[in-house]
């Protein structure tokens, strides 16, 4: 399978899950890009982010979520981000 690499800079911004998973933010931190998942505490209405470094290898981009590798793919035609364990996200 041919992996289509892309510039992570096009992912910078806020992404909203189409299946009601937590919102994610992608941002630069120096030379690296990071993915933050914004968890909402329903009781207190407090948002708490968890941040992960986006890594790259010959299979493409990925993050480690709870110790599991989760690949990141992007469809430029639909402007849709897919996080393997969390589903599809549309730009917010």
TrEMBL record:
Pfam families associated with the record: DUF3876
Protein name: DUF3876 domain-containing protein
